[in-house]
Amino acid sequence: KFPRFFSAFHGRRLPRIPLFFARFFHELSSVRNLRASLGILSLFALFTVIFLMQQQLTAWQIENLNVDPQKKYILLYKVPPWMEALEAGDECVITTNEKLLPSIEMYDAVVFSSESQINFPEKRSPDQLYVFTSRESPLYTKNNYQKDLMQYNLTMTYRRDSDVFWPSGFIADAAIDASAWEFRPPKWKHAVFEKYGANVKLTSIIADKSKFSAWLKSQCTDKSMRIDFMSILENYIEIDIYGECGRLDCPGTQDECLEMVERDYFFIFIAENSICKDFITEALFSAMRYYIVPVVYGGANYGDFLPPHSFIDANKFNRTTELADYLQRLASDPTEYGKFFWWKKFYPQVRTKRTLRGLCRAIQEFSTRPAKTGKIANIQSWWQDDSQCAQAPKIQLI
Questions:
Q1: Beta-strand pair 389-390/211-216
Q2: Can you list the residues of the chain whose pLDDT is less than 70?
Q3: Alpha-carbon gap, residue 251 to 243, rounded angstroms
Q4: Does residue 56 sit in helix, strand or coil?
């Protein structure tokens, strides 16, 4: 028996040489007629030339890739367009182009998003990592994960128990390098309430506010009863609703819109579409960059993500009337209202840009484990666990 020939690239096999080559000599040895033997040899030569031309093309492609064996190659497989702009630092190469490498099996990791219909590639190398990602809550992911059992090696979501914690933003200490784009567990200072009367900028900002609250509503769907919550709250306080599902249009870009809210309003409502553990969208961190007090409505333990006394959690109140009364008292007291911005002196860096640097590091570390292909037994039970999300808020809607 003759050995099976193969080519290798970056530690992985290229597609096998056709079976014709592996069995050629066996077939040739069984032919006794010289003319037939010459015919087979000619055919073999033709196939050899074609194969070498293909190999030369592949080698040329590989040479022009400038592949670095020290880097990890990560394929974003049929992901939503917004993920295409994500970067991962210098240790990994990120691409949505399946043809960047000659075979999909050559990628160190393949990333799948819950926001797209997940269909796995037909081929997969034994040591290739599959990564499950989601920025949405499980209530808004439509895939049937029953078929995905024993497929994934890593998870990357907003949940803190993910292999790679992937928040929509975070607040960093002033001492942290300004170029840092990764979440670091905070050690919040106790709220330091300065005499804001001496802060001319803040005093001026508060004095210019003339409207009560705004809600920037970008989605019309609702699985958190937030529409009911806001409708009841409107009976007690003024709420201007902006966006596609609102009554008002916000001017310009998101930043221009938030600048307008900062100038005119005391409060901004950040009402999530799902009441799930750790689930916080980018809207909150975007608002935290401005001098507006956010009123949050969701399922996260917000104190784990935001400085103390920098936000108001609606679910800490027994009923909507109590929340409305508190907001009215706060808006009428500039000194107490101003204390909600004490943290900006110590935590000036509010990050709202997602990256894949944490994933890159996780893949680098995973490749050094003794068992490189450890798989998640049941992604469905992990991701769609009923204990992760609530159907109703804690605050009574009365």
A1: unpaired
A2: 1-66, 174-182, 194-198, 368-374
A3: 10
A4: helix
